[in-house]
Amino acid sequence: MSCRVTQPGSSVLHRMDPRFRLVGLFVLIFAFSFVSDFRLLAAMLAFTLILFFLSGLPARFILQKLKLPSLIILVLVLVLPFVSGQNILLDLGFISLKQEGLYASGLIAARFLCIITTVMIVLHTAPLLTHVQAMRAMGLPWIMADMALLVGRYLEVLGSDLKRMHTAMRLRGLNSSRPGLYVLRTRAWLCGSLLVRGLERADWVYRAMRLRGYGHSRAATSQFRATALDMAGLAAALMAAGTVMGLEIWLGL
Amino acid sequence: MHIPDGILPLPVTLGGYAACAAAVFFCLHRINMRPDPQADIPKAALLTAAFFAASLIHIPIPPASVHLMLSGLLGVLLGFFAIPAILIGLFFQAAMFGHGGLTTLGINGVIIGFPAMAAHYMFRLGTLGQQGPKQTAAFAFLAGSLAIMLSVLLFSLLLVTAVPADLGAAVEKTAIVMIIAAHVPLALIEGAITAMIATFLLRVSPRVLHGV
Q1: Is there a domain that residue A216 lies in?
Q2: What percent of chain A is predicted at pLDDT more than 90?
Q3: What is the pLDDT of residue A7?
């Protein structure tokens, strides 16, 4: 479940309290999603780059993480300049490149890249479950926090169960690339078996949790301690977000 | 069917969070009314993890393949746990793979979670009283397909109308129709898979089908 690529304490971001890091992250990404003026894209990119250098994460790692999400948005970015707007920049006869579409496409691409890079940088400076614990410390309802921690814990377990069952089916002769009702039914039974296993395992997990004291006391103390560095980091994120949003409002007047 | 970060304007993403927060509040309130809500948490969590893993299964549709969403079945089995489970799944997907987004977490929760709840109510009302294999399969098919089609409808409406670009009414209408039409085969496949899983569960472990 750990997505971390560098050791704790290796950068300023790694040393920050996860609660402050998360608040800073959300403030920044919502400020980025507020941007609609092209002139602010440079500021947004600059803040993202500063964050990247502060994280100490390798560029290759971030680029690798951006590959899949970028493919999803690529279609929209490629189609919009040809279907949106009135002012034609380039007429190719059957299709024309339009100014408004190009503007919207650039804006979406820049906002997407800055937000996703910021998210990847911040969330990969600690294990995901640490961030869930930080959310719980900040008031995430206990049902959701407990569920998230258990999902994180058992995702890999059930994932490897699924892999094992799939391998066993292939060894017994399942041709998974062949389309048809047979493959559909086999897949359905595979999913069904996984759900049955999941629920059976849940019974044992609950009993084990009860034996370890789950449900007897909910007064858990927070494991996080804020320092001056966390305050300064959050203040910097708030200032960056405030600058972007303030400029957006000012330029829009 | 996840809207990525950066596409939607801020009021829409904040609206999504508000709608999702209200739905989560309602669901958690209903869960807390149970005699022992803690006992159901491991079941809901492990079924969520199983759904997450199962959604990685690919169905070959030449020349490509599609992955399952199973939001209808998730709604049927998890009931009031469905929306919290979907939000957790979406958070993990956004954090681990960059699929979906954090600013759009609320809106994606609405797109997938609300239809899942609709599927839950439809299946429970349809199979009220008796649960024969044919009735279970029929209502599971409807629940699976309905969840996908409602999600596609919400997704296309939001994507086409809230995207910051001047598309024009005709283009918007065409885009919505195209997106919906492209997803009809997927909805049928999801419906069929949901029906097959439901009948399998009815035969092998009916208590799973009774839900959390």
Answers
A1: no
A2: 33
A3: 58
Please report the ipTM that was assigned to this predicted complex: 0.88
**CB-based contact B152:B179 (threshold 8 Å):** yes
Residue A63: domain span: 12-133+225-252
pLDDT digits (tens, 9 = 90+) for B116-146: 999 999 998 887 766 788 999 999 999 999 9
* pTM attached to this predicted model: 0.90
Instruction: Name the minimum distance, in Å, from the CA of B129 to any CA of chain A.
Output: 23
Q: Is A219 a member of any domain?
A: no
Q: Which residue of B has its CA nearest to A81?
A: B165
Q: How many domains does chain B have?
A: 1
The secondary structure of residue A138, as a DSSP letter, is T
Helix (H, G, I), strand (E, B) or coil at B72: helix
Residues A33 and A122 in one domain: yes
Distance from CA of B176 to the nearest CA of A (A): 14
Please indicate, yes or no, if residue B80 is contained in any of the structural domains: yes
Give alpha helix (H) positions in A124-227: 128-137, 142-171, 181-211
Interface A:B, Cβ pairs < 8 A:
239
Burial of B180 (0-12, 13-18, 19+ CB in 10 A): middle
Contacts of B77 in chain A (CB under 8 A): 195
Residue B149: name the closest of B71, B77, B81, B90 by CA: B71
Using a CB–CB cutoff of 8 Å, tell me whether A78 touches chain B.
no
> A166 lies in a domain?
yes
Domain of B80, in residue numbers: 10-210
CATH of the domain at B133: 1.10.1760.20
Q: Closest approach of chain B CAs to the CA of A85, in angstroms?
A: 5
Both A74 and A151 in a single domain? no
Q: Does residue A42 sit in the same domain as residue A57?
A: yes
Contact state of A176 with B167 under an 8 Å Cβ cutoff = no
Give tens-digit pLDDT for B94-117. 888 888 889 999 999 999 999 999
Give the model confidence (pLDDT) of B175-184 as tens digits.
788 888 888 9
